[in-house]
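Researcher: Let's do a round of design. I'm pasting the C-alpha cells now; please hold your answer until I've finished.
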C-alpha cells in the first residue's frame, strides 16, 4: 500500500512497507521488507535490519480512523495502513478528550463509517479482493 520511513532520535532508519493480504506473518519480516527498503534506498539493500515488527492492518471503508466512545470508554482503530502517523494524532485527541476538551475528538468521531459489504463471512474476502485489484491496477 505504501512505504514509510523516518529517522529515530538516535539517527536510526525506521522503515515500513510492503503489502501482504493474509492473516499469517511472513517467515522473516526482515526479508519480506528488504526489497521494499531497497527499492526506495538501494544503498541500504544489504544493511542489517536490527529490529522488526508486523501485524495485521485494520482497514475501514472510508480509509479514515474510527474514533468513538461508549460511555467512559474511548477507542480508536482502523488506521488503514497509515498508523505510523494517525495513531499519534488519535493519541493526542484522546488525551485532550480525557482532559476535558473533546471538540477535535468529537469532530473525527462524527465521521460516518459503513461496514464492508458481504456480511460476517464474505466481508474479509471481498475486502481482500478489492485491495488486490487496486494493488494490481497500481502496478500496471
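Researcher: That's everything. Go ahead.
Model: Designed sequence:
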Amino acid at each position: 500500500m505504501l512505504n514509510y520511513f523516518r529517522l529515530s532520535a538516535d539517527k536510526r532508519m525506521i522503515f515500513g512497507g510492503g503489502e501482504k493480504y493474509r492473516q499469517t506473518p511472513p517467515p522473516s519480516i526482515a526479508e519480506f521488507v528488504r526489497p521494499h527498503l531497497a527499492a526506495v534506498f538501494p544503498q541500504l539493500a544489504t544493511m542489517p535490519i536490527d529490529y522488526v515488527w508486523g501485524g495485521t492492518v485494520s482497514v475501514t471503508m472510508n480509509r479514515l480512523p474510527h474514533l468513538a466512545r461508549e460511555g467512559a470508554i474511548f477507542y480508536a482503530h482502523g488506521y488503514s495502513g497509515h498508523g505510523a502517523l494517525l495513531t499519534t494524532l488519535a493519541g493526542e485527541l484522546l488525551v485532550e478528550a480525557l482532559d476535558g476538551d473533546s471538540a477535535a475528538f468529537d469532530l473525527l468521531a462524527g465521521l460516518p463509517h459503513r461496514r464492508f459489504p458481504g456480511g460476517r463471512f464474505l466481508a474479509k474476502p471481498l475486502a481482500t479482493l478489492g485491495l488486490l485489484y487496486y494493488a494490481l491496477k497500481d502496478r500496471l
